[in-house]
Amino acid sequence: MSTPTADSVAGQAVKAADRAHVFHSWSAQALIDPLAVAGAEGSYFWDYDGNRYLDFSSQLVNTNIGHQHPKVVAAIQAKAAQLCTIAPGFAEESRSEAARLIAERTPGDLDKIFFTNGGAEANENAIRMARLHTGRHKVLSTYRSYHGATANAIALTGDPRRWANEAGVSGVVHFWGPYPYRSNFHAENEAQECERALAHLEQTVAFEGPGTVAAIILETVVGTAGILVPPAGYLAGVREICDRYGIVFILDEVMAGFGRTGAWFAADHWGITPDLLTFAKGVNSGYLPLGGVAISGAIAETFAQKAFPGGLTYSGHPLACASAVATINTMAEEGIVENAKLIGETVLGPGLRELAERHPSVGEVRGLGVFWALDLVKDRETREPLVPYNAAGADNAPMAQLAAACKQRGLWPFTNMNRFHVVPPCNITAEEAKTGLAVLDEVLTLTD
Ligand code: PLP
Questions:
Q1: Measuring CA to CA, which residue among 428, 331, 290, 327 is closest to residue 72?
Q2: Distance CA 290, CA 58 (A)
Q3: Per-residue pLDDT averaged across 216-235, rounded?
Q4: For residue 60, how far is its CA from the centre of ligand 1 (angstroms)?
Q5: What gap in Å lies between CA 185 and CA 204, rounded to an integer?
Q6: Ligand 1 pocket check: which of 281, 285, 421 to mutate, most ligand atoms within 8 Å of Cβ?
Q7: Average pLDDT, stretch 361-370?
Q8: What mean pLDDT is predicted for residues 188-203?
Q9: Torsions phi, psi for 192 (to 5 deg)
Q10: pLDDT band at residue 429, thresholds of 50, 70 and 90?
Q11: Which residues of 283-295 are buried (b: 16+ CB within 10 A; e: fewer)?
């Protein structure tokens, strides 16, 4: 492991230039204080003052094989020496190989891969394919979701980041997905939640007009909006509804895919094959921008004789694809997907449940693999969230304090609303995971 060396002066210069010229995502520019990062390795990154952080966020839940994996770094370097770029219209070795490796791992007949630069673009193109394939316009998505920040993707997103982007695009309809802990359907158990959520979805389709609905898009396991693992039978039920009405089923695996849930794709846990599956992030551990859509045989056939009217200058970029090839091969060689499963079953799952026994502010622990959330509450009986929905400023103080306390103790957290998400790299060691849990144990006293 490289050791961070302190160089505060260099760090201050990086920060000053950042504050002068970098316009940050999702932020009030004058109110932020970004950490200047000097380097990273494995499950850790560090700043210019020599402070090391155990990355329990995997950045934006994308460094699935950790930071600076030498095999992926070497693959990018080798590709850069051979061919930095070539337009999407050419056949290129890294692109073909990445597509093959992805198609081999996606479920069912999702055998054609359209490459994008990230998750939002993947969803944009999946929606375009669904509309052209069905000749219909509407797309249904859940209120508890995040699908990206481009026009259709943000309109489909349920979380409040949608609000400022409205009026959105036409043809977007939201519905409620299952969330047994805070049921919209007054369900008393998971089976009831599943049944009622499916009835609600079918009714939504009926009232929207089945012949107008092109697609239903779901995150297989909802990520940013709460790490919501679907109850048994839900995804199969959605698949049936889609089949009944000729609707394209899109699974967004941008966050859940490539090992995060302890399987190559989260859909594998339920044996579901969507018509389109979107991916990004973990496909190459975020080392270069890459995403894509895995396409079923039937939808690929729609564009066999007529042109697909979509494309991107950097689609299937050789450097990004070379990093995906190296990432996927490394995950297979080093058993990283299996590691995510094992860490979830033997360390994170039991460890987080143990924390819940000791800390009354933990209302629910849920997740799988290296994809967990603590749903924090003011009161376990009423399940009132620790902070109100979309809280900011003073209202969000308990969550801000929790995050700050983690950072002071060398743990980089991922918090969202009233939740603490535990989303470390898929190749985190048991020892590192336990180190993070020990910090969490300490800081949760702040919210109890
Ligand atoms: N879909 C899901 C489920 C995501 O979690 C994200 C990003 O967090 C996106 C789509 C958007 O991906 P990107 O930021 O690469 O456009």
A1: 327
A2: 16
A3: 98
A4: 9
A5: 14
A6: 281
A7: 98
A8: 98
A9: -65, -40
A10: very high
A11: bbbbbbbbbbbbb
Q: How far is the CA of 153 from the centre of ligand 1 (A)?
A: 9
Give the Å distance between the CA of 73 and the centre of ligand 1: 23
Question: What average pLDDT does the segment 310-317 reach?
Answer: 98
Is the pTM higher than 0.95? The answer reads: yes
- Kindly state if the Cβ of 120 falls inside 6 Å of ligand 1: yes
Determine the atom of ligand 1 nearest the C-alpha atom of 281: 15
Give the model's confidence band at 168: pLDDT under 50 very low, under 70 low, under 90 confident, else very high. Answer: confident
Q: In the structure, what pLDDT confidence band is assigned to residue 221 with cuts at 50, 70 and 90?
A: very high
| Residue showing tokens 């489909």 | 156
CA of 256, closest atom in ligand 1: 3
Span from the CA of 214 to the centroid of ligand 1 (angstroms):
21
- Using CA atoms, how far apart are residues 263 and 240, in angstroms rounded to an integer? 23
Task: Find out whether the beta carbon of 223 lies less than 6 Å from any atom of ligand 1.
Answer: yes
Its ipTM equals 0.99
The secondary element (H helix, E strand) that includes residue 116 is strand 112-116
The distance from CA 326 to its chain's CA centroid, rounded to whole angstroms, is 20
